[in-house]
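Changelog entry: the Abhydrolase domain-containing protein 12B record was regenerated in this release. Current contents:
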Amino acid sequence: PFFVDFRRPELLVSNTISLHLTTEPGVTVGIWHTVPGSRGAEAQGKDQRWYEEALADAHPVIIYLHGNGGTRAASHRVQFLKMMGAADFHILALDYRGYGDSSGHPTESGFTTDVLALYDWAKARSGNSSIVFWGHSLGTGIATNAVRKLQEERGVQADAVVLESPYTNIREAAANIPLTKIYRQFPGFEYLILDSLARAGMFFRSDENVKVLGCPLLILHAEDDGVVPPKLGRKLYETAREAYKDKSKVKFVTFLEKLGLGHDYISFHPELPALVKDFLNVK
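Regenerated structure tokens:
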């Protein structure tokens, strides 16, 4: 939806509230918080304080980092909130600086600041609940940047990371875009975006980041992804698996071409929640 009232997420997804978080002086980001479906009945009409307190209810928390283009209100992102909310996860979906109703200007380091500010906010409220970083497309590089910084600068290991339709780094993603397909679907858009990110000094080097991570890492890729080829997801998996001491912590799952999930629609696969819960050892 092009025109969306971010303050009223309930028009698109139930059990959801909108909030704003100041991530550094002068930058405020918009966030939607969806609570687990099992708490849906009691969530009706509740305020932000109730939602914040709900974070400590022992259900796992997903920090959802969306891909490029659009906002947290895009249909496939709303589907993610519905699917994972129904599976009894909390989801915190933010629009980075310069996106949606968030202020500020997009930069790679700025995105990391936004994500870690949200992590700190969630960690302060979530008790012993696990917090999972979930990145899709562009968001996969944002996720690995944040998790690496958390580990290297604070000595904190993330509970888990899920990378959906990931690339190795922006340069390689831009070089691998099948131009004919892109021009047919949206003329030059994704290619130009990736190219301009690289020119703007944004690199999102997930292939370097995963070499130093130690947390559980799940990589998801559809065989028919026409934007980021699955060979990049596999390459990222192989890089991580080679570097990890405990190989069992790294998993790669592909979705068959016949499912037609492409780049954006893995969140429509009905078995996704069970697959993720199994990986996280969540009941």
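The first helix runs from residue 40 to 43.
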